[in-house]
Specification:
The structure holds two protein chains of two kinds.
Chain A lengths: L1 H11 L1 H25 L7 H28 L7 H10 L6 H6 L60 H26 L2 E2 L11 E2 L7 H6 L3 H10 L4 H27 L8 H6 L21
Antiparallel strand pairs in A: 1-2
Helix pairs in contact in A: 2-3, 3-4
Chain B lengths: L14 E14 L4 E12 L6 E4 L5 E7 L2 E2 L2 E4 L15 H14 L9 E4 L14 E10 L5 E4 L13 E4 L19 E11 L3 E4 L2 E7 L5 E13 L5 E4 L2 E4 L6 E5 L4 H7 L3 H12 L8 E6 L6 E4 L2 E5 L11 H17 L5 E2 L5 H43 L29 H22 L1 H20 L4 H4 L3 E2 L1 H12 L4 H9 L4 E10 L4 E8 L11 E9 L2 E9 L5 E5 L12 E2 L5 E2 L12 E6 L7 E5 L3 H10 L3 H11 L5 H12 L5 H17 L11 H8 L16 H14 L11 H13 L10 H14 L18 H19 L6 H15 L8 H7 L5 H18 L2 H13 L3 H13 L14 H14 L4 H15 L15 E3 L12 H12 L6 E3 L4 H5 L8 H11 L9 H12 L3 E4 L12 H16 L7 H10 L6 H10 L4 H15 L4 H25 L15
Parallel strand pairs in B: 1-11, 17-18, 18-20, 21-22, 23-31
Antiparallel strand pairs in B: 1-2, 2-8, 3-7, 4-5, 4-8, 6-7, 6-34, 9-10, 10-15, 11-14, 12-15, 13-14, 16-17, 19-20, 23-24, 24-27, 25-26, 25-30, 28-29, 32-33
Helix pairs in contact in B: 1-31, 3-4, 4-5, 5-6, 6-7, 6-10, 7-9, 11-12, 11-13, 12-14, 13-14, 14-16, 15-16, 16-18, 17-18, 17-19, 18-20, 19-20, 20-22, 21-22, 22-23, 22-24, 23-24, 24-26, 25-26, 34-35
Classes of the chains: A mainly alpha, B alpha+beta.
Chain lengths: 297, 1195
């Protein structure tokens, strides 16, 4: 509601609202100037006056805001005097000095600000019927806000659940994407053509040899891997099975040196037993030996 | 000096090899070179061992030492260049015999070799004591063209980061390409192998890795391998690369290696290897013979699977992830094959090439048992049928496929354009069929002696071998690790007590298959089935079968087996029927497998109780059966016979019966879940064919459409296919096949029905694989294949150029799909780029049918090195096809250029075999492509350009044969010594070996008249002189070329050597280390061997040597031919060739005035060309620059 109001106000009722605010501001400026005169200044720079005006406006606004907050805290809608007093005390102002200050002799009387039209509160967007208070809520309580702020408002259409249409749509969407993509690739890169008269008719992305052609031809593409991950959860058991191997390889390394020295010339026959202890003795996993230091001169 | 004569193995060498060290100290990936040495420990078996022959090809040999003494040696490889007088000869017969001679001259199985080392005379005396000799050879290889293959990707980084690797390869015994050895499967020894490689690399080789040691600078490491089991050099291999290592989680002695980044695939692909191990060990009741096993996956592999002692090298393209369905069984099959060969092929080796079939047979047979166990009996029987059909087709086409060339000269092979005496002279296709036949024969033996005995025999062979292998240096025991046909048969008779000699004689020694034609009649009175089985044993590739044959008859009361005797003259066989015909009784009908089913019998003949009949249902004869029975019988057979082979046969038969009943039977099979998926796939294609034949009477939607909709489309919206899950593989395969078959449907205009095309396009459009755990790449590829199948020739108005504007609407849609798919492949490549492959095929089809302009440039770019191999092959196939259709010599040159220069051996081989399959022209037809330059080019290719790869050379020979035939190509001018004979009405006299080849020539030259002209070759002079005492010049030259530099029986060594140098162009490298050493080239031992060879060659009937008798006959029967004079001239003055030539024509003109005009043209052309050729003869020869003579030779 807030947003709507502001944007609405900004556009339609800009001049009356501005006039109103300008008038207040001018009054404040007069106040600042008179206070300065009262303090013995003869003149002041515009910027200084401006700053002081800003300060005083802030101060007053803050007092107003706080007083309102106190009043709302006690479930009322209009601030009372005590709200203001508490506020002033809170802001570190000694309230007792106020009567004396108000009655000081050299004070200047300022004319009331010119009467301007109070800004028209723009009409809120009305969606649906505003709810009236139920019987157990006293009527002085604030009204319900506009229903669209708390009731869901359907802003989309019912999705099509017809299978045929969905498939149709998915198929044509994919086809469009593919066609657009391949056309784009064909436009931006080298192409080959099937026709001599119209090279652009059925552009084929030019065949480009790769240095290691088997990699792209054998390895599944990322897209395929993705689908595999999504669809496949049952086969994970298998995967963990085979993934044991590298782990074992690592475990194997420390013991391998000993194995090496004792290895019979016959080969890797003992590996069968070794496997029982979760140790793979495979000659290809053994560490590479350091060359023997030559003893000869 | 083999005392164990009873073992039947006699070493052809005068020494026995016991141990060999191979040490490769340096492998340079940048320069692609290898440096190392070998040391062979040999025991002489003769008293004066003065020379040692070893095998070595393309190695540069620096020094040879025998027991620390420098030894002189000669390095001579006659296979580098096969024919030397190549300026004259262009006929394949001549090449084939020369090539066989060259291969024999260095054949290790005959004790020969390229490298002849003279044992220093100081060591001769030791011969008495039979002391050990250690032969030490230092060698290097620089950019080897064969034997070792370097793969060095052209990217940034160190060699390891680039994934550079090297591996050994070869076809049969090819180890000599990368180190000197005795490259025979029968020479076993123990091994020590050392490889020093970069620290970031791994060297994988045969045997046990004993240790790995850093070099002193810590930048390299040395892998030390020991192979204590006696192994043939041909079974030694090596691969070096930055491999990722995976220790098999189930068997820690098994290690897998793959190229960087592929480890996840390796893990998945190898996860079932242990099951194969377990299976083989269980059936053979024998542990895996080696203490470890290694699998290495390499790029640009020569073949998919190659097995070596304790390791196998595979193509990296066999690896796959868990998402791939189609590749999984294929990879498993490759693993199973490799492992079967570990037992039979690596551990057990063969005695000679003639025994190869036993090893291939056993390994193929136990592989078959694995197939049966893992993939089921259906798959197994389907495979057997497939192999049998393939083999039979090849035999009928080629006219026989002898499996054992066991010196059975009774079985000559004049019909083949290659010799089968050596593995290295065989055509690749032949070798494949050879393996196929070998395992089929093993299966026949199993049928005879039972599987139990069969496995006992294998076990016996293995246990004998493993006992022998553990014997140290008892080298005569090691021969028990060799298997021969003889020892195998002996084991069989020992174990089973049965003599399978006749079986072996019929199927192994003898080539050809049996061709049966069967038909029957039912005699109602006698209630007897009168079966007639005829044989065709006259056409080529067939033989006559005599013996038992099984016939299965399905009657109403059950299925009955009958064994009939096929005898000489009995065609008809009476088989009593068990059941009376009856129709009213409702009773279940028992099937062969005991199952009882209800059948609707309304279709059958009311009088006959026969449902269907099968001849030789178990495929226990290598045969082709064509059986005639009524369509309803085939339909019953398809529906109710449970054997997949029977079902497939009936599907094939039903193609000839396009009736609604056939349609129904096929549809029912398609719908049956229990039916084997390959049968259902077959039914799809048959249904498409039937639908096309029934076009006018077909009712309802296009065939299979409603079926597909019911099976695979959504219930609510039948035009949309379900999202893919592929959980049931059977339905997956069916789902893939049906659209492809449907696309073969045609309407009355012979176009693919609009319905079907839209249906397929919808399948592509709605294909959704997001929720699938399997990849759909094969499915999508087949959908593109379906689009390809739907294409029909464009209607073209005159020869207008194809443009975008006049593109047919349907074709536009198809093209759009293809373009999009092909482009998407660049962004999201599919596994093995299957979709690209299908797209390329589709584009070629569009071109061929005239929808888009025919243009090879797209394919050429895809065929370049750097694309995935499947893509390259598909692209090359399209280029080959383009070459044929457009008769483009530019493309043909481009292809041949690639054959010579492509880095990948497989691609080279593939190009030649594809050219052979889809030749740009054949010997039977004229073509502008067929010209002298092409002949020269191909000749050069097979003569010297392919000496580094046996397989490639044989491919080139095959292509030459396909293009030009056995005799001199017709596009060449007549040879100078050629005879043109008029054989009017004497065709029957012709030697059958040349008759078929002569066909095109004759018809071309004589037109409709009955006369025939025969072009005889230079060779005739040789044969003519065979009876004459002083050999004419021609023979002498030929002799020399066959005999080679060593075959100098002439008394003046210097002179002979000189002559060799200038005319023979053999590559000779002689190094004499010490001045006192003189090389004695004139050892009688050698020249005798060579003369022996030469005689052998002359005796070969298929060689030109045998042709003369035919000529003589022809000559005698023609009284007016001017032959005698020309003959005389030839034999006396061979130098006046051109004169002779002229002479002939002159005479000829006289005789045949009718065709004077025609002849005249010919003559002129020939003469002018001949002159040209004569002047260029020597400079043109590729050999002229080849003669390398070591400077030390003249010392």
């Amino acid at each position: 509601m807030f947003v709507l109001q502001r944007s609405g106000g900004g556009k339609a009722t800009s001049s009356p609202a501005e006039n109103y605010q300008l008038a207040r501001r001018r009054t404040l400026q007069v106040v600042v100037s008179s206070l300065l005169t009262e303090c013995g200044f003869e003149s002041a720079e515009k910027a200084a006056v401006e700053s002081l005006t800003e300060m005083i406006q802030s101060y007053i606004s803050e007092v107003g805001r706080c007083a309102k907050a106190y009043c709302e805290h006690t479930a009322r809608i209009t601030p009372t005097l005590s709200d203001t007093v508490v506020t002033l005390i809170e802001m570190g102002f000694n309230v007792n000095t106020l009567p004396v200050y108000a009655k000081r002799s050299q004070r200047m009387v300022i004319t009331a600000p010119p009467v301007t039209n109070a800004p028209v509160i723009p009409k809120a967007l009305i969606a649906g019927q505003k709810r009236t208070h139920p019987s157990h809520i006293p009527s002085h309580f604030p009204e319900f806000p506009d229903p669209h702020t708390y009731i869901k408002t359907p802003t989309f259409r019912e999705p099509v659940s017809d299978y045929q249409v969905v498939r149709e749509k998915a198929a044509s969407q994919r086809r469009d994407v593919e066609r657009a993509l391949t056309r784009f690739m064909a436009k931006t890169g080298e192409t080959q053509s099937l026709f001599k008269d119209d090279i652009t008719a059925f552009p084929l992305i030019a065949a480009r040899p790769s240095s290691i052609p088997y990699l792209s031809a054998l390895l599944p593409s990322e897209l395929e891997l993705q689908t595999l991950e999504e669809t496949d959860s049952s086969e994970q058991d298998d995967q963990t099975d085979s993934e044991n191997t590298p782990g074992n390889n690592l475990n194997d390394d420390p013991g391998a040196d000993k194995e090496n020295s004792m290895l019979p010339p016959g080969g890797v026959v003992p590996s069968v037993k070794a496997s029982e202890e979760n140790m793979i003795d495979n000659p290809y996993l053994r560490p590479v030996k350091k060359p023997k230091v030559r003893r000869k001169k | 000096m083999n005392r164990k004569k009873d073992k039947g193995f006699e070493s052809p060498r005068p020494f026995k090899l016991t141990h060999q060290v191979v040490c490769i100290n340096n492998i340079n990936f940048q320069r692609k070179s290898v440096i190392g040495f070998v040391e062979l420990t040999i025991f002489p078996t003769v008293v004066n061992l003065n020379r040692i022959k070893l095998n070595s090809k393309q190695c540069r040999i620096y020094r040879v030492r025998v027991n620390d003494l420098e030894a002189p040696f000669i390095y001579n490889d006659p296979t580098l260049e096969v024919c030397h007088h190549e300026s004259k000869q262009r006929n394949l017969n001549y090449f084939s015999s020369a090539y066989t001679a060259a291969v024999s001259a260095v054949d290790p199985d005959a004790g020969h070799g390229e490298l002849v080392i003279k044992v220093p005379s100081e060591l001769w005396k030791q011969g008495d004591e039979m002391n050990v000799l250690k032969v030490y050879i230092e060698f290097s290889l620089d950019q080897p063209k064969g034997g070792l293959h370097f793969v060095v990707p052209d990217v940034e980084g160190s060699m390891a980061e680039r994934g550079a690797h090297v591996f050994s390869f070869g076809y049969q015994n090819s180890t000599r390409f990368w180190f000197p050895c005795v490259d025979s499967y029968s020479e076993l020894c123990t091994w020590k192998l050392e490889f020093t490689v970069d620290a970031s690399m791994v060297a994988v080789s045969c045997g046990d890795l004993v240790e790995t040691v850093y070099t002193h600078d810590m930048r390299k490491k040395t892998f030390h391998y020991v192979l204590p089991i006696p192994t043939a050099a041909s079974n030694i291999s090596l691969s070096v690369g930055p491999f990722e290592i995976l220790v098999d989680p189930y068997m820690h002695e098994v290690t897998h290696f793959c190229l960087p980044q592929l480890l996840p695939l390796l893990k998945h692909s190898m996860s079932y290897l242990h099951e194969i191990f377990e299976f083989y060990e269980e059936i053979l009741t024998c542990r895996y013979p080696y203490s470890c096993f290694k699998t290495v996956f390499v790029d640009e592999a020569y073949v998919q699977v190659s097995s070596y002692a304790s390791m196998s090298i595979f193509s990296t393209n066999l690896l796959h992830s868990a998402m791939i369905i189609d590749q999984t069984p294929l990879t498993r099959q490759c693993l199973a094959q490799a492992l079967a060969q570990q037992f039979f092929g690596c551990f057990i080796s063969r005695m000679s090439w003639a025994d190869e079939w036993v090893l291939k047979g056993i390994s193929g047979y136990i592989y078959g048992l694995y197939l049966k166990k893992t993939f089921g009996v259906n798959q197994y029987r389907h495979w057997i049928k497939e192999e049998l059909d393939k083999m039979v087709e090849y035999e009928l086409k080629m006219g026989g496929l002898p499996v054992s060339s066991n010196g059975h000269l009774t079985c000559p092979t004049p019909h083949l354009h290659f010799s089968i005496k050596h593995p290295h002279t065989l055509s690749w296709k032949y070798y494949k069929m050879f393996q196929c036949k070998a395992h089929l024969v093993m299966r026949l033996i199993e049928n005879r002696i039972s599987m139990e005995f069969m496995l006992q025999v294998f076990n016996k062979l293995l246990s004998l071998a493993s006992t022998a292998s553990s014997q140290k240096y008892q080298s005569h025991m090691w021969s028990q690790m060799l298997v021969s046909t003889h020892s195998f048969l002996k084991s069989i008779s020992n174990v089973s007590g049965k003599d399978i000699g006749p079986l072996i004689k019929q199927w192994v020694d003898q080539s050809a298959v049996v061709k049966f034609f069967g038909s029957f009649a039912f005699n109602r009175k006698r209630n007897v089935l009168e079966l007639e089985i005829r044989q065709d044993y006259t056409s080529s590739g067939t033989q006559k079968y005599v013996g038992p044959i099984k016939v299965t008859v399905q009657e109403l009361d059950g299925s009955f087996n009958h064994t009939l005797q096929i005898e000489e003259n009995s065609l008809k066989h009476d088989i009593p029927c068990h059941s009376k015909s009856r129709r009213n009784k409702k009773k279940k009908i028992p099937l062969m497998n005991g199952e009882e089913v209800d059948m609707d019998l309304s279709a059958m003949d009311a009088d006959s109780p026969l449902l269907w009949i099968r001849i030789d249902p178990d495929m226990s004869i290598l045969r082709k059966v064509e059986f005639e029975q009524a369509d309803f019988m085939w339909q019953y057979q398809l529906r109710y016979e449970r054997d997949v082979v029977a079902q497939e046969e009936s599907i094939l038969a039903l193609e000839k019966f396009p009736t609604p009943a056939s349609r129904l039977a096929l549809t029912d099979i398609l719908e049956q879940d229990q039916c084997f998926y390959k049968v259902r796939q077959g039914a799809c294609f048959c249904l498409a064919k039937i639908a096309n034949s029934m076009m006018s009477t077909w009712t309802g939607p296009p065939a299979m459409k409603s079926l597909f909709t019911r099976m695979f489309c959504c219930k609510s919206c039948p035009n949309i296919v379900k999202t893919n899950t592929f959980i049931s593989f059977q339905s997956y395969f069916l789902q893939k096949t049906m659209p492809v078959a449907m696309a073969q449907l045609r309407d009355i205009q012979n176009l693919c029905p609009k319905d079907v095309l839209n249906f397929i396009l919808d399948l592509i459009k709605y294909n959704d694989n997001r929720k699938n755990k399997f990849s759909d790449n094969y499915y999508r590829a087949e959908l593109i294949d379906a689009l390809t199948n739907s294409l029909t020739p464009a209607i073209s108005i005159s020869n207008e150029v194809r443009t975008v504007d006049n593109l047919n609407g349907d074709v536009r849609l198809i093209l759009e799909e293809i373009t999009r798919s092909l482009n998407m492949e660049k962004l999201l490549p599919s596994y093995r780029n299957t979709i690209t492959v299908s797209c390329l095929r589709a584009i070629r089809m569009l071109q061929k049918n005239g929808h888009i302009p025919s243009d090879p440039s797209l394919f050429k770019s895809y065929a370049e090195y750097g694309h995935f191999v499947d893509v390259r092959v598909a692209a090359l196939e399209a280029v080959v096809d383009y070459t044929r259709v457009d008769r483009s010599s530019v493309e043909l040159q481009w292809l041949l250029n690639m054959v010579q220069n492509d880095p990948a051996h497989y691609i080279r081989h593939k190009i030649l075999s594809m050219l052979g399959k889809n030749p740009p022209f054949t010997k039977a037809a004229e073509s502008p492509l067929c010209n002298e330059a092409l002949v020269d080019q191909l000749w050069k290719l097979m003569n010297s350009g392919t000496s580094h790869d046996w397989r490639l050379r044989c491919d080139a020979v095959n292509l030459y044969y396909t293009l030009f035939g056995l005799t001199r190509p017709s596009c060449l001018p007549l040879p100078e010594l050629g005879l043109v004979l008029n054989l009017k009405e004497k065709k029957a006299v012709l030697n059958p070996t040349i008759k078929p080849e002569q066909g095109p020539d004759t018809t071309e030259m004589t037109g409709i008249t009955m006369g025939g002209l025969i072009t005889m070759e230079t060779v005739s002079s040789v044969s003519m002189s065979s009876g004459v005492a002083p050999p004419p010049q021609g023979l002498k030259r030929k002799l020399d070329s066959v005999v080679g530099p060593l075959g100098s029986s002439s008394p003046e060594p210097g002179q002979v050597l000189q002559e060799e140098d200038t005319s023979k162009k053999f590559k000779i490298r002689v190094r004499i280390s010490s001045a006192e050493d003189e090389i004695d080239m004139e050892s009688p031992h050698d020249s005798q061997a060579f003369i022996h060879h030469h005689l052998n060659i002359l005796e070969r009937p298929s060689t030109p040597g045998k042709e003369p008798p035919a000529v003589d006959q022809a000559v005698l029967s023609l009284p007016v031919t001017p032959l005698p004079s020309s003959f005389g001239k030839e034999s006396t003055s061979s130098s006046k060739h051109s004169g002779d030539h002229h002479h002939h024509h002159h005479h000829h003109e006289h005789k045949k005035k009718k065709k004077k005009k025609h002849k005249h043209k010919h003559k002129h052309k020939h003469e002018s060309k001949d002159k040209e050729r004569d002047s260029h003869a020597f400079s043109n020869s590729p050999a002229s620059g080849r003669s390398v003579r070591s400077p030390s030779m003249s010392d």
